Automatic annotation (TrEMBL):
F-type ATPases have 2 components, CF(1) - the catalytic core - and CF(0) - the membrane proton channel. CF(1) has five subunits: alpha(3), beta(3), gamma(1), delta(1), epsilon(1). CF(0) has three main subunits: a, b and c. Its main location: membrane. Coiled coil: none annotated. The keyword Iron-sulfur does not apply. The gene is atpC. The lineage of its organism: Bacteria, Pseudomonadati, Pseudomonadota, Betaproteobacteria, Neisseriales. Keywords: ATP synthesis, Cell membrane, CF(1), Hydrogen ion transport, Ion transport, Membrane, Transport. This is ATP synthase epsilon chain. Belongs to the ATPase epsilon chain family. Produces ATP from ADP in the presence of a proton gradient across the membrane. It comes from Crenobacter oryzisoli. HAMAP family: ATP_synth_epsil_bac. Pfam families: ATP-synt_DE_N (PF02823). It is found in: Cell membrane; Endomembrane system.
Length: 134
């Protein structure tokens, strides 16, 4: 029996998953499935979940921020800004919650840095303006 191979690529990682007997993802028109031997396909994925059933009967769950899916010759390539992968959906949920918390912390830190930079620029502009008047 032939199987699909999935390559997941983002800006930081490449993850390869082999022995996939079916894959379900979602595009703008709805969910679709891929089986080994599928015709060549390229589509834009919606942000969400991708499910893969492996030849041993287990499942692999993926979350992606949208992206492009290319399928040809039983190779499926998923290119996304970011993705997460887990054996169980509970693990994926935990990973997503951790990522969300980290992004919130990063966003807060970035906002604080911007405010400090703006204050420093305003202070410097005032100093520069006062020096020009003198």
């Amino acid at each position: 029996m032939s199987a699909l191979t999935l390559e997941m690529l983002d800006g930081h990682n490449i993850e390869r998953l082999e022995n996939i007997v079916s894959l379900v993802a979602e595009e703008a028109t709805g969910q679709f499935g891929l089986l080994p031997g599928h015709e060549a396909l390229i589509t834009a994925l919606q942000p969400g979940l991708v499910r893969c059933r492996l030849s041993d009967g287990s499942w692999r769950h993926l979350a992606c921020s949208g992206g492009v899916l290319l399928c040809r010759n039983n190779l499926v390539q998923l290119v996304s800004a970011r993705f997460l992968s887990a054996e169980h959906h509970e693990q994926l949920t935990a990973q997503l919650e951790n990522r969300l918390q980290r992004e919130r912390r990063d966003r807060t830190t970035d906002q604080q840095a911007r405010v400090e930079l703006e204050r420093a620029l305003i202070k410097r502009l005032r100093e520069w303006s006062e020096a020009r008047r003198s």
